Structure formats: structure tokens, C-alpha cells
Amino acid sequence: MLDSLKSLLPGKVSTTPADLEAHGKDESYPLQRPPLAVVYAENLTDVQATLAWARENRVPVIPFGAGTSLEGQLIPQGPALSLDLSRMNRILQIAPEDFLAVVEPGVTRKALNEALKGTGLFFPVDPGADASLGGMAATNASGTTTVRYGGMRPNVLALQVVLASGEVLELGRAVRKTSAGYDLKDLFIGSEGTLGIITRLTLRLHPLPEHVHTLRVFFKNLEAAAQAAYSVMASGLPVARLELVDARGIAAINRYLERSYPERPALFVEFHSSSREALQAESRLALELMQGAGTLSVDAAQTQEERTAQWEARHQAYWALVNLYPGKAYLSTDTAVPISKMPALVAYASRLLGEMNLQGSILGHVGDGNFHTLVVFEPGEAKAEAFSERLVEHTLALGGTCTGEHGVGLRKKKFLPKEHGPALSWMRQIKGLFDPEGLLNPGKIFD
Amino acid sequence: MLDSLKSLLPGKVSTTPADLEAHGKDESYPLQRPPLAVVYAENLTDVQATLAWARENRVPVIPFGAGTSLEGQLIPQGPALSLDLSRMNRILQIAPEDFLAVVEPGVTRKALNEALKGTGLFFPVDPGADASLGGMAATNASGTTTVRYGGMRPNVLALQVVLASGEVLELGRAVRKTSAGYDLKDLFIGSEGTLGIITRLTLRLHPLPEHVHTLRVFFKNLEAAAQAAYSVMASGLPVARLELVDARGIAAINRYLERSYPERPALFVEFHSSSREALQAESRLALELMQGAGTLSVDAAQTQEERTAQWEARHQAYWALVNLYPGKAYLSTDTAVPISKMPALVAYASRLLGEMNLQGSILGHVGDGNFHTLVVFEPGEAKAEAFSERLVEHTLALGGTCTGEHGVGLRKKKFLPKEHGPALSWMRQIKGLFDPEGLLNPGKIFD
């Protein structure tokens, strides 16, 4: 069967064990399953040819960007092709005068920002990993700067997508505003490859801030740090990043990256401004608010290098923690709640770890009410999943969501009936409309 | 037939000529047609009862908020009920700690902002008219502050909607971020009552700016004003409003509101900041940039009253212009283009008015690349529509959209095939999925 695929796409189909293994897993989901083959698409025609073959042979297709998803989005649930888009990595246009870039889906966020050097602009969505922009749109990624610049939806203006049928659609327009009909662009963003394959993105760029001020603030306990984060947000100050790392996370960073931060719960905070005076005023007010919640010490990054080092530390916290526990399994929750409920949910998660006798670390985007609990457990043990269920249950009761940014994939499917109620069946019906044969990433988001 | 409706909803169904007339028109569309009856829904149950009756009697339903739409969204295309939601005007919750408000669809934006007094928060979307928030979501409204705060999509976090079947869906969550499945909330925003009836909205609130600086800047000609607006946007300065009014618009405002502004093309500009120093630095830089494009004079509002007067003038420009030409008909275009293309499109629109020997005025949200050309013509004359077609043609060729904020309604339907290509048929299919009998606002967006 694969011979016909190979002759359809000569030199672009791989079945080497290394390729199959690399495309049968993601960065966090515990199970793996290799695809039948990996197709390395180089252009739109390759994507359409792959889909034509998939329709004829009734083999599902899973789009693959950089492989950095966390919830099992890339893992076949049966015989399937992995459609690797990493060779579609051309930056098609940079239009600084319009704050726009047009890219193929395999361009990574770092590659784009590298290409933007000298324009005074950047693409702000920053999930930590050097994810592909197509994958980031597919999972509606966000990250440390979302509190200021938003996630993928406001920063992707238009998409080209290929449906299971091979039909090519252009969704959205390269404008700041449009009210011309249904918003299909945002429907495809976050659909995790289940509605279509993203083959081109038009992205919104932002001016690099002229002035940046970055702080590390350490607190006596986790509750104080969470409360301080809430106080800063409640003040309406225009923070650009506001990240919580608990004491265990700081300890892991110290060990993994050879840092010597105080091993206490910390907030990593950043302000962006076009004016130095505004920046100083904002930072000063933020510090006063945080001191009210009980700071132990404050440390400001003085140079660009120090800033980069601070955010590298935050981004590596996940890997630092994983590294602390070799041989263990780990699970990361991704709850988000209305901002005022965040301190209570942080406290709940912390208490629940203790109650359930689990090791774990709490960190994340508290400025958005979104944080992760990285739970460490013995492979095969059910306790971490039970923790996740209890935390999501509590989150939903507070009006929150089971996933702020990682998406649903395989792991969060079970929470959607409760989160969405009857709306979930309409999501399924939309899936059935666009992909009646269930060829596109089946078994993700819903069964 | 209507007797059964009246007995189903006693005291809530009107067929008085005044009610029928008021519900058979909007603020701009030239044709009118009264509905069969007006139902004044007071709660969710009334909405469901109306839809049940409509299904049984195969009579379409058109949701009606404040009646301020501009493209014919409210006008029956055959026998239909108008479902007036203005009595569903309760503010259900204000949660300043979460920057949230929960409202019924008939609450107007001004009523909400009135209720928010004292909280230090406001709801920023400002289309000029005192529209209902349900209607604003239905048409994906935006306005003068969108350049800073975004339009309805980022400012509506969740919706309750009732489908044609009577089924109630809760879409979105009251959180800043979620990646839990398909984005149905944004699908319903901008669907103009064709997919469901909005019965509740969860809105995102913003801190009132501590410092506001408002300028009126007058230019030697329209091209200079448009170019100045582009220079300000290209600099990345965080403007909160950036509005163009041409000389004819200023003259109309002077006459209608008894002002004495210089009758020259003007930019109305506003900055919001938490710091006075930042505000001064930003305004200064903006002024320098505008002076480079050729300013004649600059005028800063010194007090809150002056600011309010300035924005009232901008908001009343449409009515001021209409008032200049009693007995004439008028049509407002709503094109938006990538920001660098805006000066050229403004020049094109101005030239085209002259070429076609039409009177008109150019004004709007140039900071978003979105502006309106208000064309005045003799009732029955086809020239204004021909103007609109040529302008939209040119706009689409520049990568723009036929409607930045007014929506499609009846008037923009003909442009969608060209703007969306094959994606339009998928919008139709989604319509067919949610409303297979075509009960909800038929004939709007597409036939």
C-alpha cells in the first residue's frame, strides 16, 4: 500500500524506524505509537497528494510541525500517516509597513523572530518550545507574553487550509478588522488538525518594546506569590509577562542551569514600554503591590543578557523539573480560571499534592489565571491522573477551563463534556461537516 | 396565526403600526418592511417559546437589539417575527476583581458603562451608536477604541445562545485563555442572528486609563492627514483612538453641533496611559510624526468636558452629514485594508467621488485601516452603489475586506463570493447545520 504513496511523492516518504519513532510521540504524552509512514510535504501540492492518497486508502492523516505538543495531539490512534510540514519552512513575506508576515506552517517562532531582526518588529506568542507556527495555530498556543499580546487567535489574521477533500480555503484577511461573515479562521485555530491542514499563515507583528524592565521577586510562601500576582493584575498595570515558579521549580532551575536563585516561590515579571519613565513608574507600583503581599527579595535584570537568562530559566523550568526525577513519569495540568480565583486554585493544587502524597511543582502564566502543576509519579501509577481530575473538577466549578493553552489532544477529551455541555455535540457536528470520513487526526479532541 | 403567539406570550406580542414600523428598518438601509409582529422577550423562556412557535408555523425570527445596525440586518425578507430583546436588559453580574461583567443582550453599551461607574473599569467597544451588547456581538461591532482594545471578539469571553431548535448552548468561558476545543463563541460573534439568538454575554472589562490626552490635528489636505495617520501607526505608538474626518465632515459637524473647528481634514487622536510622563512622551512623538506629514494646526482638549465634546463631534459626524442633505439618500462604505494601503485607498475614494460626480465625505477608524465613505445621492439613483462596488473591488485587490465593522446584512452579500472564495460555501454549510430550516434571520450574510 505504501508503495503507491512513495511513487506519488518520490523522496518525500519515510518509513525508517527513527522517523517513525520521532513521529509517534510528543513531548509529554506517556503513550507512543509510530505512524505507518512519514510524508515530508514541501508544498501545497504535496499536502493535497497526501490527502488524495489517504482518502483512497482510507488512512488517516496527522499533521506534524515541530513535535512539541503535550497532550498527545500527534500520536496515531490506529494506522495513520504523519504529514510532516517542517520542510514547508519558507517565510513568504515580511511587510513591516503593515506589521505582517506570511509564512509556511513549518517556520518556527524562533526562526521567524530571527528573520525579523532589524525590522524593529517581533512575533510575540511564546510557548517556550521552539514550536512551528502551524502547530501553534493548530493548538491555539499561548505563553509568557499572552497577558500583554494575546495568544494565537488575535495574532493570526489569515490562514490557508486544505480540507480532507483536498479543497483549499483562504480564511480571514490580512486586515486588523473584518466583519465579513462567519469567523472560520478562529474555528480552525485550536482545531488540532482535526478540520484541515494549515498550509500558510498571515501573522500580526508587534513593535519591539523600546524599554523593557524585568524583575524576579521572591516570596515567603506560594500563597503570597499568587496573591501578589493577583494584586498586580487587579491594579490594571500593563504587565508584559507575569510568571509564577514555586520553590521546587526554582531549585530545579538552580540545579539544571547552575543558577543560584533563592529557593523560594518567585514571580518573574516584565514590563514593556515606549517610555523609560512609564516603565519605571509601572515597575515601582508593581513592586509596592507585591511588597504588600509579602516579598522576601527583589532582583532586577540589568542587561539584555540577564533578561534572556531569566526567561531561559523560566522556559527551562519544565525540563529542569523532569530532569530532577530520572525514570519517573510526569503529567502537567493546564487549568485556567478567572484571575481572582487563581490564588485559591494555586493553594488548592498545592494542598492536593500534599494530601495525595504526590511530588510536584506549580508554575505558569498566573497573569492570565493559567498555571501548570507538574506532577511526578511512578510510571503506571494512577494517582497523577486522579490529581488532574480533581484539579480540573475544582477548576470547572470555579468557572475555569481544563486547558488554557496546551489543547485537548488525547488527555483532556474526558473533561470536555462537563466543560462544554451540549456545545460539545455541535463541535462534533462541525467536525463531521468538514471531515465526514474522519480522515484528519481522528480520536483527538473527541472520539 | 398570530393569536396563538399572543396567547403563548401574553402581553409580549405587539402588532401596533408603530412597533411594526420601528422593527422593519435600521439606521441606514434604504428599504423597509415591517415584520408580522414584534415579540418582546423578557427571558430565556420567552425566546424559546418564540422559536417553538416559529418552528411550528414556519415563520422566520429576526433578533432585534437597539435597531442601530446599518446594513439591513434587521429587515425582514418575507413574513417574519422581530424578536426584540431590549427588555432583557439586566446586568447580571459585575465582577471588578475579574474584570468581567455578565449581561443580558438588551443592555446597551452606555447603560453598562454607567453601571460600571465607581469600579474604575469600562467596556471599551464603542461603535458610536448606543447599540445593545447583544447586537454588537451579533455584528462583531467595533469602533473608535478598537485600535487599542480590540472589537467584540476579544472583549466577549462567553455567550449563551439559543439555537433555532430551542437548544441552549454555553460558548466560551469566563477566562482569559482557553484551548478546549473548537471556538464556537467567535463563530457566533458576527453571525448576525443567522446561527442563534444571543441571550447572555460575559464581557471583558478594562481599567479606565488614569491619564488621557486628546488632540485634534488639522492638515492641508486629505492625503496629508491619511499619511500622518499611517506614520503614527507605523511608529508603533500605543494610540487609543485615531480617527480621520475630512473637511466636509468637519464643516457638517460645525453646522450640526455649532462648533468652530477649522474646516480642514483632521485627525482626532487619543492616548491612554497609567503614567503622565509616558502620555506626554507619546503625544509629543505622535505630533512630530504628524507635523512631518504637513499639519496646519493642533488643538489639545484640556478637560474631560472638552474630550467628551470632541468625541461627541466625531460620533455625530455621520448624522451631521446626513443632516446637511435633507431629502437625499446616503450610503456608507466600510472598507478596511492593511494599514500601509490606507492612505492610497483614501486618495482613491476621494478621487472616485470626484470622477463619479458624487458628493460624499470620508471619515473613520484609519488607525485600523478602516474608513467610511458616506456617499450622498438622489433616492433611486444607482451611482452610489456603483461607487461602493468600485471601492470594494479596489479594496479587495489590496487585500482588504468589504466590511471592517458594519457587517454584511443585505448590502454586502454580493461582495462575499469574491472576498471569501470557496470558504463562503462552508459558511453556508455551517448555517445549514445550525439552522436547517432557515428560521433565523434568513437572507442575511447569504441568500
Please describe what this structure looks like.
- 2 copies of one chain form a homodimer.
- In chain A, strands 15-12-14-13-17-18-16 form a 7-stranded antiparallel beta sheet, with helices on both faces.
- The first copy, chain A, is globular and about 65 Å long.
- Chain A folds into 4 domains: 83 residues, Uridine Diphospho-n-acetylenolpyruvylglucosamine Reductase, domain 2; 117 residues, Uridine Diphospho-n-acetylenolpyruvylglucosamine Reductase, domain 3, CATH 3.30.465; 115 residues, Alpha-Beta Plaits; 110 residues, Alpha-Beta Plaits, CATH 3.30.70.
- Chain A starts with a helix and ends in a 13-residue tail after the last helix.
- In chain A, a hairpin with a 5-residue loop joins strand 8 and strand 9.
- The longest helix of chain A is centred in the C-terminal third of the chain and has 21 residues.
- The mean pLDDT of chain A is 96.
- By secondary structure, the first copy, chain A, is an alpha+beta fold.
- The first copy, chain A, has 16 helices and 18 strands.
- In chain A, helix 9 packs across helix 11, helix 9 packs antiparallel against helix 13 and helix 10 packs across helix 12.
- At the A-B interface, strand 9, helix 8, strand 11, helix 11 and helix 15 of A face strand 9, helix 8, strand 11, helix 11 and helix 15 of B.
